């Protein structure tokens, strides 16, 4: 079964045990969401991001907070922390398959990046493109992401934090994509769909 995609990605994910998901899928999620960030950043001549343990902790704790409160909302401490942020929410009434957390991470990085369709590279501006610009922002160096599952096991809250955040000249930090994405890259079974784009 598939659900529609919107700004909040609604995905179909198989049933899984909540405790096992929390313990076992975080590593694949982080690996795949960061790997996809860097693959997409390379298209825009932006250097790869390095995973930062402090940012990872902040992101995970905030995802857990959103899961507890059942609320998707920007971290009110972003300015204080001087960090950038992308958030996401995924829902499936059956629960989550802990073997597909990597695919979930990849899908969210790609979903945020898809806002490129609304970006005008000539004018260096766009409507509703904050997620895209943060993914490829050239001056950003570090990233940390976190995934938390809600108490009913049916909602996944996603946070990525970035340092430094978007700040400065968009024309210098969001370059035109001049490299074609190589669809023949070696597949990663933790990140890539195998035949069916279902979680």
TrEMBL record:
UniProt keywords, alphabetically: Signal
Segments passing through the bilayer: none
Domain of life according to the entry: Eukaryota
Signal peptide: 1-19
InterPro entries listed in its UniProt record: CAP_dom, CAP_sf, CRISP-related, SCP_GAPR1-like
Matching SUPFAM superfamilies: PR-1-like
CDD domains hit by this protein: CAP_GAPR1-like (cd05382)
All residue ranges annotated as the SCP domain in the record: 28-168
Keyword Signal: yes
Pfam families per UniProt: CAP (PF00188)
Designated name of the protein: SCP domain-containing protein
Organism: Brachionus calyciflorus
């Amino acid at each position: 079964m598939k659900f529609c995609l919107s700004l909040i990605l609604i995905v179909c994910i198989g049933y899984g045990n909540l405790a096992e998901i929390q313990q076992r899928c975080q590593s694949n999620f982080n690996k795949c969401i960061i790997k996809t960030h860097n693959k997409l950043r390379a298209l825009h001549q932006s250097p790869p991001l390095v995973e930062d343990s402090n940012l990872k902790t902040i992101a995970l704790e905030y995802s857990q907070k959103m899961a507890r409160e059942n609320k998707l909302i920007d971290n009110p401490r972003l300015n204080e922390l001087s960090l950038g942020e992308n958030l996401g929410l995924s829902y499936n009434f059956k629960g989550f398959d802990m073997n597909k957390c990597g695919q979930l991470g990849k899908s969210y990085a790609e979903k945020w990046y898809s806002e490129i369709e609304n970006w005008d590279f000539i004018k260096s501006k766009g409507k509703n493109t904050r997620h895209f610009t943060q993914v490829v922002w050239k001056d950003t160096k570090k990233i940390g992401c976190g995934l938390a599952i809600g108490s009913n096991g049916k909602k996944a809250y996603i946070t990525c934090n970035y340092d430094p955040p978007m700040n400065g000249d968009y024309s210098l930090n969001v370059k035109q994509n001049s490299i074609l994405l190589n669809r023949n890259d070696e597949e990663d079974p933790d990140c890539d769909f195998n035949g069916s784009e279902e979680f």
